[in-house]
């Protein structure tokens, strides 16, 4: 018989429900309204959180402003390296809840978000639960209005060429990802038992957003795979009722960003496989590329035959997106082989990709997140 994860049955099972610490990482004053809308949506949860932790990424002015503006929120400065991974690790370190949930600073959660997460943690084998992230395209409800009413009345207009199979490029749930057991959760809409972070080792600062100018990702993918490798009995689940809406700014609804994000994802996947191996690191991606994407191309061509000419654009975007992701991965793997070996349990750093990964962020320039 399989044993429960480390530390035995969770304490919250004896209290009837987990206590949540919700961690939001912020880095720029340009998202002032977004951050306040995110916090408002957490305050409005049907399952009230134990605390809201707002981590500010190496921006003292923003830290002081938000600390004054949100006196009921625990506002702290990132104590680790600049970037999303360091911010999340800082949030975990100060959290007191049984479960740590993560919400992006440019997203709002539906009122039942934490309640949906909570239902799964009665099972001691569940180490983490994620949810469905829906896009708020350009033209959606402004964040200033979401502060008073966190559920958007409008989600804007999706570009007609943009395939749902690639919604991950804007941080959202994509076609082909289904509720149930999953390999990894998407970091902007995820929760984990706090006791699992010492087991997994935290988020790697060598992967993800905030260090370089390119839109890297996959820090949560690498973390989840590492968690499962170190605690094979643990399960990660995706719940379709744990809904958040994630804002897509106009510049990310353009084909140029789409292509750049795909290329950066390939580079990021090279770092992931360097850390956790190709079998685990690419298992979901192979299935998506071999099953979901070909169906998406055929769907787009079929739509075009039925009079929706934008279907040709969607089919073409899927083809280009896959090609650029594969190209980034190939170049990343080649560059990684020339660099020093990765440290045990983590990644040596994005710098290992050298010029392929893009230059480090110049002083004063905000990272892409």
Automatic annotation (TrEMBL):
<dbReference type="InterPro" id="IPR029044">
    <property type="entry name" value="Nucleotide-diphossugar_trans"/>
</dbReference>
<keyword id="KW-0808">Transferase</keyword>
<protein>
    <submittedName>
        <fullName>Glycosyltransferase family 2 protein</fullName>
    </submittedName>
</protein>
<dbReference type="Pfam" id="PF00535">
    <property type="entry name" value="Glycos_transf_2"/>
</dbReference>
<feature type="domain" description="Glycosyltransferase 2-like">
    <location>
        <begin position="21"/>
        <end position="129"/>
    </location>
</feature>
<dbReference type="InterPro" id="IPR001173">
    <property type="entry name" value="Glyco_trans_2-like"/>
</dbReference>
<dbReference type="GO" id="GO:0016740">
    <property type="term" value="F:transferase activity"/>
</dbReference>
<feature type="compositionally biased region" description="Gly residues">
    <location>
        <begin position="345"/>
        <end position="358"/>
    </location>
</feature>
<feature type="region of interest" description="Disordered">
    <location>
        <begin position="341"/>
        <end position="369"/>
    </location>
</feature>
<dbReference type="InterPro" id="IPR050834">
    <property type="entry name" value="Glycosyltransf_2"/>
</dbReference>
């Amino acid at each position: 018989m399989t044993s429960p994860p480390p530390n035995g049955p969770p304490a919250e099972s004896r209290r009837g429900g987990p206590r949540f610490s919700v961690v939001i990482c912020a880095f720029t004053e340009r998202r002032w309204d977004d951050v306040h809308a995110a916090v408002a949506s957490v305050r409005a949860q049907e399952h009230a959180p134990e605390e809201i932790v707002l981590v500010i990424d190496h921006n003292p002015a923003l830290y002081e402003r938000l600390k004054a503006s949100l006196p009921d929120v625990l506002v702290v400065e990132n104590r680790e390296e600049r970037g999303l991974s360091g911010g999340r690790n800082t949030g975990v370190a100060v959290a007191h809840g049984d479960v740590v949930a993560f919400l992006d600073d440019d997203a709002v959660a539906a009122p039942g978000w934490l309640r949906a997460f909570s239902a799964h943690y009665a099972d001691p084998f569940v180490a983490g639960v994620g949810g469905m992230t829906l896009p708020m395209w350009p033209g959606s409800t402004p964040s200033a209005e979401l502060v008073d009413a966190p559920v958007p009345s409008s989600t804007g207009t999706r570009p007609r060429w943009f395939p749902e199979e690639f919604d991950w490029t804007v941080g959202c749930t994509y076609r082909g990802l289904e509720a149930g057991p999953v390999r990894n959760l998407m970091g902007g809409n995820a929760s984990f038992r706090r006791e699992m972070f010492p087991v997994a080792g935290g988020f790697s600062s060598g992967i993800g957003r905030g260090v370089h100018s390119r839109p890297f990702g996959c820090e949560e993918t690498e973390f989840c795979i590492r968690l499962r490798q170190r605690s094979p009995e643990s399960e990660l689940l995706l719940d379709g009722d744990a809904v958040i809406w994630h804002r897509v700014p106009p510049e990310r609804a353009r084909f140029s960003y789409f292509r750049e994000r795909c290329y950066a994802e390939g580079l990021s996947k090279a770092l992931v496989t360097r850390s956790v191996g190709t079998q685990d690191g690419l298992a979901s991606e192979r299935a998506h590329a071999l099953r979901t994407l070909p169906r998406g191309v055929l769907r787009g061509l079929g739509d075009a035959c039925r009079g929706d000419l934008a279907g040709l654009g969607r089919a073409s975007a899927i083809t280009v997106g896959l090609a650029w992701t594969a190209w980034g991965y190939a170049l990343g793997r080649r560059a990684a082989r020339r660099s020093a070996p990765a440290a045990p349990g983590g990644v040596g750093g994005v710098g290992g990709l050298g010029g392929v990964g893009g230059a480090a962020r110049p002083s004063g320039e905000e990272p892409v997140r």
